[in-house]
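Q: Joint fold for the lines below.
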Amino acid sequence: MDLQEGSTKDLWKDVFNTGSLHYCFNCSTCVSGCPASHGDPPLLVRNLARKVILGLEEELLEDDTPWACVSCSRCDEMCPMNVMPFEMILAIRQWQCRNDETLVPSAIVEIYKRGFTQAVGVNTELRESLGLPQLHTITNNPEQLELFREMLMKTQIVSDNDYMFKG
Amino acid sequence: MKKEEKEMQLCFFPGCNTPAIRPDVERAIRASMPVLGIDLVDADNYVCCPAFGSFPSADEEAWMATSGWNLSIAEQKECDFVVQCGSCYSSLRMGRDHLVHDAEKMAHVNELLEPTGRQVTGKSKVRHVSEVLFREVGPEKIASQLKKSLQGLHGVVQYPCHTLFPSEVVGFEESPRAPQGLRLLVEALGATVDGYSRELDCCGGAGGFMKSTPEQAIEFARAKFDAILAETKADFIAVSCITCLMHMEKVQNTFNQQLGEEQYKIPVFDYNQLLALCLGFDPKEVSAICNVPRDPVLSHLVPVKPKA
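A: Joint structure:
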């Protein structure tokens, strides 16, 4: 592989700007406990760390394995060099979203619209049958929902992609 | 109660799957905690934790703002959050951790919150319901309050990954490699808890694994269930995370559909459901919804004779 040709110097600063990332010595502890390493293609956390460190920008942008992570955080626990691989996975996803808006998860649009990805607070009959009170959710409180939306609209991911959140 | 005991107040963060899809778990938590001296106050106008697949995967600023919104609710109530869902627990705790360790981030989130009339300082902590039961209430007190018992039944426990790792941020066990809280809590209800080789394996239900490569994710879960069947006498599985609960039921149905026979049928309960049942609450309220029939366990609840 021609690293001169295909690498972006300092990509890591743009993706996951922590000093400890460079302590990764490819030991693969992060992979051995990872549920999604059983996937096809497998999530190989250490390979992702390599791509970030070596600046393989195109390869990293096209890699969808970070999205298979189950967030169990075993890699964070077990990594002997404190690289914080789970936080790296989230950082790679964020970087991919910044560089390719089609990757922005639709879940954030749902949260903007109703506060949740699930329909919380509308199953009144079922809740009553179980002896549960009505939930005071933001979904049923237009004033609070509007304040929540106004707050989110000031964040970069939402304002940069505001067309996704309208209508 | 013999002696006057101080009540503890916690702000209950229900998450989304529990109130929307499995509200009987919410009922079990709301029913059981006050009996044990834990008063729950509602988190009015809370929003998504936010789930790891949402803002945390898209933008840290919006993640922190959403965490700040939620944390401000517990702070207004002047108490800590109590959470059952593993992902909510971990996302809220990581959010709080980022904010309290970075004054700049904290200041920025407060700027974003200011027009909403909210503020976050980090004074309210985020606690998992199993930690509160294990550390604040304790197995002994639980055992002393029971009206029914799981005596004669065997169970296995599923520790929520998000309560174990990374232990420095989310942990409460003495050793995250050898957790014991959930086992001791289930034993307090009278059941025998069997250990097995894949006890600490993730259920595999959270995040994108099931979505991106379902075939492999199902095989991953099958290894766990086959170990349960081969190595234990489990009559039930006790979890303390809504994702574990929903996934460990659903995946058994998937195995059975693939096989064409009902080979996998171990009832799965949230711990608070077992607790509420043993405290005498109505199964129709606290254990109403399931995808793997629970009758084999419900019909074996043994009445506890009141102590003279």
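Q: Anything notable?
A: Chain B has 16 helices and ten strands. Residues 19 and 298 of chain B are 23 Å apart (CA to CA).
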